[in-house]
Amino acid sequence: MTESNNDNNLETHSQYEQGSAQSAKVTDEQVINWIKSRRSIGNLTIPAPKHHQVEAAIECAMTAPDHKKLQPWRFIVTEGQQRHAFGRALLAAAQAKAVLEGTDLDERTADKTLKMPLRAPMIITVVTNMKYHEKVPQFEQLLSAGAAVQNLLLALKAQGFSTVWRTGPLANEPEVKRYFNVGDEDYVIAFVYVGSSHCTMPTREDIDTTEFIKFDS
Ligand SMILES: Cc1cc2nc3c(=O)[nH]c(=O)nc-3n(C[C@H](O)[C@H](O)[C@H](O)COP(=O)(O)O)c2cc1C
Questions:
Q1: Residue 114 pLDDT exceeds 80
Q2: Ligand 1 mean position, distance from CA 185 (Å)
Q3: For atom 13 of ligand 1, which residue has the closest CA?
């Protein structure tokens, strides 16, 4: 785990919980609490992860369960000035959608759309790259790519960064798919906005699992 200026980092968490500055063995309970402590943070600023940190996170993403190891994903890391080009693709999508729907894209919405990628110093776009396999239907590959995104979020958190997984109504519009070179059969499944956050992670309400589980024995 790397140094961090927020409370994402697992080691930092264990230090808080133990009231000690020493790095201690992380217990199972701490890992579980740390997973539960992941929150989406929209207010993101520099520093963004360094490239080696992004690579480490994507390596974790690529350990997602993956039937027949088809690796049905691609990751596009957008940062710096390139975020403006991404914004222009979103705006083109919004304009085309408005024409198709016979609506008007007002100036304020157009400007907001153009600036969407500026909400974080880095965006990792995850797209599917599904393969034909007689034993692995596309829905399995889509789920696998979704699991990769969750691993990506946790691996970024482990390195001290905050994230929010966004898609929004424009993600799979033709202009955006074309920008990310996504084929007709594939999907843009995540814009992972990444950066640093100085706010404390909002605590999560207690989760009552009873309605969602049936132990059958
Ligand atoms: C596929 C997918 C797409 C999402 N798209 C958006 C989005 O466009 N905008 C948004 O505010 N939240 C979006 N979310 C939800 C947030 O990522 C987040 O999970 C939610 O706000 C709950 O917050 P939490 O992660 O702190 O529990 C999306 C989640 C998923 C799984």
A1: yes
A2: 23
A3: 166
